[in-house]
Design the sequence.
């Protein structure tokens, strides 16, 4: 029996066992996701498996029979939130002793964290890491039938398990993982330690999944990986990210495709050309630069310098009309000086990002940066951080003002309040406009009529 057949067998068993245990033909499961789109995509698999077992999904932890938190380890703040939220579950478990509480995801791949969870939260019945998600039915079966606490972590077999059931959260915006793991080992980052080595899915499988999504009505598909530019390594001579992206964009149908994350060290002119030549590929690139100081980039093990970053940015700007660039930036890396930080601000001003994800450096156990000298106090880093936000706010305000009077094709995403909809342009900018909820999930034309506090208003044409 292959691995997934075995899991299908446990799924069948659980379909009978869970209703008896919970006195409900369709027990309720609550899955809460922390962290990035990788975890969102994993949670969609966990939800798919739960549905295959006959469970229904609920947004309310209070009414659930099974609660799973899919956790993120990228910064201390993310971990603290999880510890706090798990603490709050104690009362629920007391009220409903049959409640099964499970924790999974990136935090659980760190031994010191899994140990702390095991000791501090005796009511957590199941702990599993990122590499064994495909075995969730088997683990749940053992946790439920034996009543013993189960911890399964630290097994990276380097495999990709295709064919796990999936419950996609959105009906017109969707994530499509093209690869897993990361080999880059940036010195501050825990991801390679908790997600394992980089491995790519076969292009034919990705294409089939993309086609199925388009047929199911998805309008905005994001190809997902920690470093999509190195897609294809180890699976074939010819597989490459630009060619995969092009093939996805050539699928029949009216949809947009975007991707994240691309690492500047591997972003090629070929990739930019493919974006420029294929109208379904969004004119939006998320290209994290992390720091504008060459000295700090070296310490971070990023394998590019500011000149190389600017070269690819300038090439992209010259080729792709109305390009939006977004990025991640870390403030206060160990040893960073105010002068280094000023170089980060210079880069931000030079590029003119549409938006930034900004982080204060957070030491991660087991990473090289956590052992580096870090003399700048946190309060000082916070001041730099505020300075950066101010610079970015001015850039964003100008960009918004420049859009007034222009017309864009948008995908209507959600209702903000009665009668007001939020729609997004190809280059990832949100515009609010009056309209009815039946427009959600459709492409429309919108004319931007005003920009106020970085919020754009417009009218559908
Ligand atoms: N693979 C992506 C990023 C994944 S993590 C890439 O290389 O761009 C998302 C972001 O979190 C990173 O880009 C970085 O800006 C931030 N980050 C990662 N580790 C961090 C740490 N220890 N402290 C602060 N920010 C961190
Ligand atoms: Fe982390 Fe660097 Fe890998 Fe991104 S590329 S996940 S920042 S190690
Ligand atoms: Fe967090 Fe794991 Fe993503 S550490 S940022 S959820 S890969």
Sequence:
């Amino acid at each position: 029996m292959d691995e997934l057949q075995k899991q299908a067998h446990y799924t069948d068993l659980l379909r009978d066992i869970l209703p008896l245990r919970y006195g409900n033909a369709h027990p309720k499961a609550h899955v809460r996701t922390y962290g990035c789109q990788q975890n969102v995509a994993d949670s969609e698999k966990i939800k798919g498996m739960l549905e295959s077992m006959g469970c229904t999904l609920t947004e309310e932890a209070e009414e659930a029979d099974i609660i799973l938190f899919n956790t993120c380890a990228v910064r201390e703040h993310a971990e603290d939130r999880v510890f706090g939220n798990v603490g709050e579950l104690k009362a629920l478990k007391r009220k409903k002793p049959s409640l099964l509480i499970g924790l999974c995801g990136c935090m659980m791949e760190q031994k010191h964290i899994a140990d702390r969870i095991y000791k501090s939260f005796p009511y957590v019945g199941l702990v599993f890491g990122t590499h064994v998600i495909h075995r969730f039915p088997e683990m749940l079966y053992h946790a439920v039938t034996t009543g013993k606490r189960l911890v399964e972590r630290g097994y990276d077999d380097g495999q990709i398990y295709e064919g796990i059931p999936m419950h996609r959260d959105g009906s017109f915006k969707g994530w499509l993982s093209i690869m897993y793991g990361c080999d880059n080992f940036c010195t501050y980052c825990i991801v390679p330690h908790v997600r394992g080595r980089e491995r790519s899915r076969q292009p034919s499988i990705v294409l089939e999944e993309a086609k199925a999504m388009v047929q199911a009505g998805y309008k905005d598909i994001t190809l997902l990986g920690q470093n999509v530019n190195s897609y294809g390594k180890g699976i074939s001579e010819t597989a490459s990210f630009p060619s995969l992206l092009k093939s996805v964009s050539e699928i029949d149908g009216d949809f947009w495709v975007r991707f994240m994350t691309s690492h500047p060290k591997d972003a090629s002119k070929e990739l930019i050309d493919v974006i420029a030549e294929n109208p379904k590929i969004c004119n939006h690139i998320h290209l994290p630069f992390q720091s504008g100081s060459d000295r700090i980039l070296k310490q971070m093990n990023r394998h590019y310098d500011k000149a190389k970053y600017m070269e690819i940015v300038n090439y992209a700007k010259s080729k792709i009309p109305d390009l939006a660039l977004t990025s991640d930036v870390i403030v206060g890396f160990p040893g960073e000086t105010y002068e280094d930080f000023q170089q980060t601000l210079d880069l931000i001003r030079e590029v003119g990002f549409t938006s930034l994800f900004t982080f204060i450096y957070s030491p991660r156990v087991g990473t090289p940066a956590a052992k580096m000298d870090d003399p700048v106090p946190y309060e000082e880093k916070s001041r730099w951080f505020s300075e950066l936000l101010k610079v970015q706010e001015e850039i964003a305000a100008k960009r918004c003002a420049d859009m007034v009077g222009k017309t864009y094709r948008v995908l209507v995403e959600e209702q903000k309040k009665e009668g007001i909809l939020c729609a997004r342009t190809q280059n990832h900018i949100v515009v609010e406009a009056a309209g009815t909820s039946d427009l959600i999930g459709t492409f429309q034309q919108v004319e931007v009529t005003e920009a106020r506090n970085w919020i754009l208003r417009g009218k559908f044409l």
About this structure: The pocket of S-adenosyl-L-homocysteine (ligand 1) is lined by residues 74-75, 188-189, 191, 226-227, 261, 263, 288, 290, 328, 330, 359, 361-362, 364 (CB under 6 Å). The two ends are 57 Å apart (CA to CA). The chain has a mean pLDDT of 96.
